[in-house]
Amino acid sequence: MNVDSLIWVVAGIAGIGAVLALVGYLKREPLPMNDATRKRARGSFLRLSQGTTHYLEEGSVDGEPVVLVPGATLSLWIWDGLAERLAAAGYRVIRYDLLGRGYSDRPKIVYGPDTFDRQLEDLLAALNVRAPVHLVGLAFGCPIIAEFARRHPSAVRQLCLLAPDGFGVALSSSKRFVHLPFIGPYFFRLVGDKTLEQRLAAYSPNPAVIERVRAQYLPELKFKGFKRALLSSIRNMPIHDARSLYHKVDALLKTTLIWGKADRVTPMPDESELLSVFLRADRHFLDGMGHLPHHEQPDLTAKLVLRALRGDAAAIASTKQAFA
After folding, report:
1. Are strands 44-48 and 65-69 parallel, antiparallel or unpaired?
2. Which residues pair with 67 in a beta bridge?
3. Rounded mean pLDDT for each run of 10 residues along the chain, 324 residues in total
């Protein structure tokens, strides 16, 4: 390629970047995250070292603590149903919005393992949680809780992983494009809302579950800073390969794996691959269920989680009685 051709290529890329920047600016998220916006939220707020965290606490303050960590794009409401069932069984249930999501702050930082580990550590300290905690994660929340367990094994009683990220998901051309420097963020700002909304159709085989998620999720796309935080998370978290991390924590702590065989968001890998990573874990692979088994079959999923937490048949019986 001669010099003139190279100049035209560079100019073309710069022109595309400028157009995307302008369109992205015009389509920017209009809603700030502030006290007025937060009035619509359930739960409470804590000012932690990296910013304000939105959380919701249910159940007995004297119960064993269970912390529910959501996925990359969803906030604490995604645990509706399961949280109430665990609280009814006597646990102190804490769920929260990850930084950059829901009603938590969106600081201009790198959204990687250190950020999410510190947020969870700060939250537990602020809520005076001293006993080892049960950690339950969904998808993106699973590498977060696994990393927390690796760093703080004495603070964790066990892990429960629902459809964990970290086993490789094929990237479309548009998804690969957002990883490009400079242009990627503007492109994501442009197509992000549409891409994220279209993705909802894959969450469940049950249309009622999808509509329930859609109604709560789409308004949150308008909060300023969400897509910037999400893109940083995609770039800096081990969402495509967390096998080594899972293998390490499976050797350290009791681990339970729950996965819908019909999951199209985080497709379940071959069982032989899972067995090579989770040598000791209790594994539950659910026929006909998608990415959100706790919404598709809430009683069954609660029984499996309670079996993991208590490890006895009484846990299943208590849930069946409470939600008969």
Report:
1. unpaired
2. 94, 135
3. 52 50 54 91 97 97 97 96 98 98 96 98 97 97 98 97 87 51 54 78 94 94 91 91 96 96 94 94 96 96 96 46 37
Q: 102 — phi, psi (to 5°)?
A: 55, -130
For the 3-322 domain, the top CATH level (class) is alpha beta
* 3-class SS letters over 234-302: HHHCCCCCCHHHHHHHHHHCEEEEEEECCCCCCCCCCHHHHHHHCCCCEEEEECCCCCCHHHHCHHHHH
What residue ranges do the domains of the chain occupy?
3-322
In this prediction, residue 8 carries a pLDDT of 54
